[in-house]
TrEMBL record:
UniProt region (Disordered), positions on chain: 366-415
Protein name: KCNJ8 protein
Compartment(s) where it occurs, according to its Swiss-Prot or TrEMBL record: Membrane
Site (Role in the control of polyamine-mediated channel gating and in the blocking by intracellular magnesium): N161
Ranges of Low complexity composition bias in the record: 378-398
TM region(s), chain numbering: 71-94, 145-169
Organism annotation: Polypterus senegalus (Senegal bichir)
Keyword annotations: Ion channel, Ion transport, Membrane, Phosphoprotein, Potassium, Potassium transport, Transmembrane, Transmembrane helix, Transport, Voltage-gated channel
Length: 415
């Protein structure tokens, strides 16, 4: 007879099926959509198949500023080195044409003194362009060509210095460096404020130097399909923010909570708490302003996807008054607390205002219950404290002592 192992393959045996089931999960997570703007403000966009590369050379200065530091330093070094070598070759040709290398020639004044080889011509080229002037080599009046080369090298050196030093300065003073100290809260929240459902996030500045004329703009980026069937992968929709003077300017002297009222004009108007997680939506926040110390316009960016929007939360206060000074506790910058908020959309709240009333009543009842619990806990703690004090006082009381007099009578006294 054949063995059982040959009749039933090993992959159909129960011990072999169980590990396979464990290795292959039945439920797969929904693939995360790539975000358009990263949390640090970088644009998550790759440019491909650019055929007209020559357009970048039409604006050489901006191209040099946009390059990475290692490429900029290589170009900086090679530009000076190549110019020194080029003019060193020209000085060597001038000296060679005038016959300065003919050692048998005596009494004739050379075009450039002490230039006897290509090495000395290279040193003279460096001295001319960087205006060092050690004094051993100099141009004489014998060669007009040498004077012309001297003029052209000075002009070329000034142009190279202006371009390269300006490029280095612009790279070190770029606006996004100032944006590193402009911070946003890690998560955004949706809660009820002034009886309206609001989208809120927090922004702050870590430096004491202010951002002049700071403005905040918000956009919603999502994939939409038009009635004609056109697919728009990156559809940008502006969001208006709550401001009584109808402007987005803010005074960023302390961390602020930026609020957007979800009304009929908002792209979040029809989204509920459940719909928010199922929609591929991204809220982009842009903060712009002028740096007070340098006068350069800076811009800070961040974004919030559906997983980073907390429904029914509120930011904790972080600004307190201590000895006449307002203090900001940045350790609680992104902390939130859970509050009672309707889980429905703002559209449903406008259609049924009773939902908001019921929610507020529940929040009021829960607040009263919490206050009652706190008061009861305080009473219990005070009673326990009083009982412990009484016990300690009773333990400290001295016992009564009996004194026996010589007559045999007993006297009671407290000591």
């Amino acid at each position: 007879m054949l063995a059982r192992k040959s009749i039933i393959p090993e992959e159909f045996v129960l011990p072999g099926i169980a590990p396979a089931l464990l290795r292959k999960p039945r439920f797969r997570e929904r693939p995360r959509k790539p975000r358009f703007i990263a949390k640090n403000g970088a644009c998550n966009l790759a440019h491909k198949n650019i055929r007209e590369q020559g357009r970048f050379l039409q604006d050489v200065f901006t191209t040099l500023v946009d390059l990475k530091w290692r490429y900029t330093l290589v170009i900086f070094t090679m530009s000076f080195l190549c110019s020194w070598l080029l003019f060193a070759m020209m000085w060597w040709l001038v000296a060679f044409g005038h016959g300065d290398f003919d050692y048998t020639k005596t009494g004739a004044e050379p075009c450039v003194t002490s230039v006897k080889s290509f090495t000395s011509a290279f040193l003279f080229s460096i001295e001319v362009q960087v205006t060092i002037g050690f004094g051993g080599r100099m141009v004489t009046e014998q060669c007009p060509m040498a004077i012309t080369v001297l003029i052209f090298q000075n002009l070329a050196g000034l142009i190279i210095n202006a371009v390269m030093l300006g490029c280095i300065f612009m790279k070190t003073a770029q606006a996004h460096r100032r944006a590193e100290t402009l911070i946003f809260s890690r998560n955004a929240v949706i809660a009820v404020r002034n009886n309206r459902l609001c989208f809120m996030f927090r922004v702050g500045d870590l430096r004491k130097s202010m951002i002049i004329g700071a403005t905040v703009r918000m956009q919603v980026v999502k994939k939409t399909v038009t009635p004609e069937g056109e697919v728009i992968p990156i559809h940008q929709i502006d969001i208006q923010m709550e401001n009584p003077i109808e402007t987005n300017n803010i005074f960023l002297v302390a961390p602020l909570t930026i609020c957007h009222v979800i009304d009929k004009t908002s792209p979040l108007y029809c989204l509920s708490a459940a719909d928010l997680l199922s929609n591929d939506i991204e809220v982009i926040v842009i903060l712009e302003g002028v740096v007070e110390t340098t006068g350069i316009t800076t811009q800070a960016r961040t974004s919030y996807v559906a997983e980073e929007i907390q429904w029914g939360h509120r930011f904790v206060p972080i600004v307190t008054e201590e000895e006449g000074v307002y203090a900001v506790d940045y350790s609680k910058f992104g902390n939130t607390v859970k509050v009672v908020a309707p889980r429905c959309s703002a559209k449903e709240l406008d259609d049924k205002p009773s939902i908001l009333i019921q929610t507020l009543q529940k929040s009021e009842l829960s607040h009263q219950n919490s206050l009652r619990k706190r008061n009861s806990m305080r009473k219990n703690n005070s009673m326990r404290r009083n009982n412990s004090i009484r016990r300690n006082n009773s333990s400290l009381m001295l016992p009564k002592v009996q004194f026996i007099t010589p007559e045999g009578s007993q006297n009671m006294s407290d000591t």
